[in-house]
Amino acid sequence: MSEPIKPDDIDAVIHERVRLAIVAALAVSPQLSFNELKEMLGLTDGNLSAHSRTLDEAGYIVVEKAFQGRRPHTTMRLTLKGRKAFQRYLETLRQIVDRGDQAMNDSS
Amino acid sequence: MDADEARDRMQEIQRIMERATLFTLLPGTAAVAGGLLVLAGCAASYAMFRSLDFADMLGISLGAQAAFCVMWFAIGVLGVLLEAVLTTRAAKRLGLVAPDRPARLAALSLTPSVAVAMVLTVKFLIPLEPRPEEVQYIVPVWMMLYGTGVYTAGLFSIRAPRVLGVAFILMGIVALLFFPGYGVVSAALSFGLLHVVFGLYVVHKQRQIAAP
Description:
The complex is a heterodimer of chains A (about 110) and B (about 210).
Chain A lengths: L11 H4 L1 H11 L4 E2 H8 L3 H13 L3 E8 L2 E8 L1 H28 L1
Chain B lengths: L2 H22 L3 H22 L12 H32 L6 H26 L6 H4 L2 H17 L4 H20 L4 H28 L2
């Protein structure tokens, strides 16, 4: 029988919905600007700032701040560590789904 | 976390990744190229019947009318091909998997309105003696229906395509109500210039994102 999935197996940094959305969006884009992410995910400035900071501190994304003329321009991209964490998280989800399906088949 | 929640999460992730992929692959250069093609088509149309009113093509020879229809059909086909080719190239360049589902969603959103526009065009042109006032409806009808399709396709992406769709619908309404006799100008401003401006905007935004 396979090992049960423990709470520790789920990455708490990525598990939060907004952070998961940020990582998922960055997983298919070389990088995205703060405004594009905000618009794409329907977030407020404060919400996106707070969650991107958490991801940055975990080393999952890189936040780069620059100026275009006088206007600040912030971009974000996924790091290798972030990509691996995202892939691990997806694998964990797949395992949970598979086990749920298996349990349902066994009981029927 | 139970299996249902995990399944919900996976679907949510898939939706977000599709939306992000669509943005990355928005074919800005295809929009510019398509817009330039339309502008060339408008110039050629004007050269054919020396008028800004598409209904005046009824006054040219049957051969010239056939050439006119073939030219616009070719412009439409070329525009779609350009979009497909440039989107696929952008996906390859970024190392992304071909965006099958987002592309299919966008195509499915556009198809019904384009099909309706084609049916109406045939209805306006097919009678033995087409009525000029009906021929004048063709461009505004295409503008409004194309705008509706683009708006719907934009529901799966970011705001920019939706804004483009609304702009087409509004311009179509104005063209239909106030300037039906200036179809060449309406087509040049909407399918031509608006596409060029939109394409340049998308290219500019993508360069901003890609800039180190």
